[in-house]
Amino acid sequence: MHASAELSLPCDDRDFAEWHQGCPWCAVWVVWLDDAATRQAVAAGRAALDDCLLARYARQPHITVAYRGLCADGDAHEAGEFGLQALRRDLGLLKNLAQQPFVLQLGGVGSFTSVPYLAVAEGGEALAALHAALVPQQPVPGWRYVPHVTLGHYGQRLPLAQALQKLKEQQELGQGLPPQPVGQLALVRYASADMAGPLVREGCFDLAAGRYSAAPGALWAELGEV
User: Is the N or C terminus of the chain more exposed, i.e. has fewer CB atoms within 10 Å?
Assistant: First the structure.
């Protein structure tokens, strides 16, 4: 969604207990972006929108590749959707895809009704292939995968065209960021009770080697390297 007469949708900042039913974590495959240029661009975008965004957004810069669902230590929770067996299945899909390392470049801005974002200028095809391998069926009718770096949740209602104009006025966002190589996917989790909390690394899948390594303190540390 881009500039239009539509309005942003302020986030409902609460614990969605009816969704997670006490299951503590939610898992997601992402491209983790920890370079200085991306961090600066995200900071510039957030500064441009200032009080239009939820102030406490703490997610590190990343591009979501595939949502995996609720999970818990030991796969013990009855509301859990993702666990050791599902992770093994994902790793099989990624190995069969054999996506090689690729170059990613961010450039431009956009907005959904719920979040503004930095757009992907290069590397979108590789991201789409990874997403399609992990999510072969559309989760809902009309679903379209749009790789992006979320800047935060909207905290108030305003015209999306106004939000986009604020972003485009920032010099740091007017040019494409330096290209950067992507050599791995990160499996991360976040606390299901906190819609704006930080991401925790669970493990990484090396694209070139086709191998997964669990992070220290991972829920499924028994995998080690596979």
Answer: N
